Amino acid sequence: MKVSDGSKEVVCRERKLSSESRTSSESFSFLRRSNSSRSLLDDILSSSSSTSVKKNLKSVKKMAPFLNYKDLGESIGAITYPYSMAPWVPNLLEVDNSGIKLDSDLERVMGVMREGVVLKKVTRKKQREYMFKLEKNKYITWKDGLKKLNLDSIKSIRPGELGSNYREEYNVDASYSKYWVTIIYKVSNKLKALHVIARDESDYNVFCSLVFGLVRTRRELMESLAVPDHDKFADIHWNRALSRNPDEKAEEVLGFEDVRQMCQRFHIYCSAGYLRRFFDAADTNNSGTLSFEEFQVFVKLLKARKEIDDVWQEAVGLHEDKLTFDTFYKFLTEIQRERMDEDEARHLYERYETAGGGINKQGFEKYLTTSPYMLPNNEDYSRPMNQYYIASSHNTYLTGKQIGGAPSVEGYIQALQQGCRSVEIDMWDGESSPVVCHGVLTSALPLSSVTQIIRKYAFITSPYPLIISMEVRCNSKNQRIAASIFKDTFGDLLYTCEDRSELPSPLELRHRILLKIKKTKTVIGDCHSDKSMNVVVSSSSSSRSSYDESTAMTKTGSRIRRLSFSKRQVAIVDELYELAGLRGVKFRNFSLPESKTLYHCFSLDERRLDKMLGDAQVAAAVDKHNRRHMMRVYPHALRYRSTNFEDPVRFWRLGVQMVATNWQTNDVGHQLNVAMFQLNTRNQQQMPSGYVLKPGWLARPPSKRRRERCGAVLRVTFEVISAQLLPNLSESTETKSQAASIGAAETEDPYYTQVTCEMFSCGSTVEKSSKCHENGFSPVWRSALSQDVRRDEYPFVFVRVVVRRCEEVVATTCVRVCQLREGYRHIPLCSPDGEQYVFSTLFVRYRVTV
């Protein structure tokens, strides 16, 4: 099966590079990183209390990127941040202390890989050697070219011990670790893994150098598009274009077809007529070709942003060519609504000031493209845990559909590294030990493998407590084994219920793990006998099934029983239950004593909770309960495609702390979830904590809310002005654009882009769409959307933007507007899979008036 372009990724691993591997090869020299990047890392190192984060960040400072633009292949993919890329190291590739000696001569390595290197491919069932080759400088191929991996689809590279969990799962001897490489990539929105073992150190270093080097270099080339330095872009692409046309090299000119092909290779998808207008304007001598100086003019015209010219005129006035400090400060306070004094503004002004004084238009554009779009995170983490919303995952172990979907540790890695603070473990009986699976004839993972992965990634992104929601469906013997696994793996990190008057705060529970376990009171059948062991869906699942006598093989070689539909319970043994940090309780009503115990947590599926909310008195009781105690809501079991509820906001408005979504599905529900917890603010060096404090009125007694509901009405206006550097995702779109650009008759403009803006508020949604023709690369729409909201409902207003090209979704973004800075802002765009593009942005203006 061939790997489609799908979602594209660069690679970043936060692991230590030993000094031995840095100095052992004289041919490898690292380039220095910028002082600003080092300052950022130094700041984080000094403020972070997490040993693991400090250790990873210290190693980052030892690394530098490849900078080699030679011979890069036919096209560059739609590059996105990998989920493993921490927000504070956005520009680095990294390896661990696995002994890799990366070769700085990337061109030589590429030559070796074109001829091929023999590697052993490892799967669960077999190990077999193949010739791995580099094809078109974009694909790694094997099996005589029948299988291929697109370099731009890579999400993570795990050499050596970083891939040990897979090596151990496949029963590969530890002696092969030093030549082991795992590559995580994506095909059709599904995570896949390629595991290979090199024959010797030479082949190992060649393969790693190629993958690390090419991924980095391809990203550097795309970055030259994003930076406002037109001359740098022109110089790089001029030399590349000439090298592809040796017949014209002597003349050192480029024709229109050369320029058009260059634009298509780098996702500049515009109509031939659109490009021709710029080409003719730059061709000052009307020769039909461009010299280097004329090509520089063409690049300047192509990258010019008329919409920023309008903002510039608004800021500077009609008859000025530079911003003085006074006019800049006025723009900051009146248009951008920044709350800063003159000293802070002066410091910002000097950052963009020219040598001759004042800020010119290029400096102003740089300010607009680099200024933060989110308000700073000044969250108070000292309140009881029930006063926070918690980023929560449902069926974390799945990377696809519920039925037939294979469980994978990648689900935990992805969720934890994106800031998730509540994951789910569905624990069943394996042949000799507990396993994690979905139960419906799916494969399984050893519980020990899952806990090790959770321990490894639990606090890399956020130091605040991690809740593991347990679904216990195994017999007492395996429950005791599970208890031993939890204690051995998590040790002192486990928090168990203590005698206190209110729940502990996230600040108190930094770097702690809480198991949420439901205690059942009755047992039907012999808990010590696998054959008579029956299980029921516990508090976090709707009615699924229990074991019968037939069995199915798991991926780990153990057996689990097929499911029959019954509702029988398994007793939770004391050894496991005493480890609970939250106690799952079956909901009956809010007046029973168990509904008032401190550590209890109700778990309800969306349908049951929606039914309860249909009764006004019950809805008020839910609201009142959640001001002091915990509740979790999750998607109904009939969502077998792992879709999410379309409106999680309705649950947040009632104070539900854990609104669990299927993180593997980037639908509207999960996009709202991402926006609530600011999980995609990578370019602002903000680490998502996974905890968001509720609005004040949801923490006070309900009777006090009535007065606040009569507060001021706010007018929220969100204007989508333009998008920048939109990628091309499908070959079909590229084929259409190629046909149109060479003059093929088209009844439909293949370059038009449509933007749809949706504003979610108080259970209602308003929507507006606009189109831009000819320009599918940096379209301008100027489409505004407004809505009136009450002040107390303002924290629950979200804006979602979807960009389509030829009906295909190209990019999306979703923001919680109360976290958005006012004024003109650039917001990062995400792929349809939800991964943030490295360069693509949305230029907006946001305003709030009373």
TrEMBL record:
UniProt-annotated stretches for the region Disordered: 1-35
One GO biological process term: protein localization to kinetochore
Residue ranges occupied by any EF-hand domain in the UniProt entry: 270-305
SUPFAM superfamilies linked to this entry: C2 domain (Calcium/lipid-binding domain, CaLB) (SSF49562), EF-hand (SSF47473), PH domain-like (SSF50729), PLC-like phosphodiesterases (SSF51695)
Molecular function GO terms recorded: calcium ion binding; phosphatidylinositol-4,5-bisphosphate phospholipase C activity
UniProt feature, compositional bias: Basic and acidic residues: 1-19
Keyword Membrane in annotation: no
Extent of Low complexity compositional bias: 20-35
Segments forming domain PI-PLC Y-box: 582-698
Cofactor: Ca(2+)
Alphabetic keyword roster: Calcium, Hydrolase, Lipid degradation, Lipid metabolism
Reaction(s) this enzyme catalyzes, per UniProt: a 1,2-diacyl-sn-glycero-3-phospho-(1D-myo-inositol-4,5-bisphosphate) + H2O = 1D-myo-inositol 1,4,5-trisphosphate + a 1,2-diacyl-sn-glycerol + H(+)
UniProt GO cellular component terms: kinetochore
Classification via InterPro entries: C2_domain_sf (IPR035892), EF-hand-dom_pair (IPR011992), EF_Hand_1_Ca_BS (IPR018247), EF_hand_dom (IPR002048), PH-like_dom_sf (IPR011993), PI-PLC_fam (IPR001192), PLC-like_Pdiesterase_TIM-brl (IPR017946), Plc1_PH (IPR037755)
EC code(s) of this entry: 3.1.4.11
Name by which UniProt lists this protein: Phosphoinositide phospholipase C
Organism, scientific name: Candida glabrata (strain ATCC 2001 / BCRC 20586 / JCM 3761 / NBRC 0622 / NRRL Y-65 / CBS 138) (Yeast)
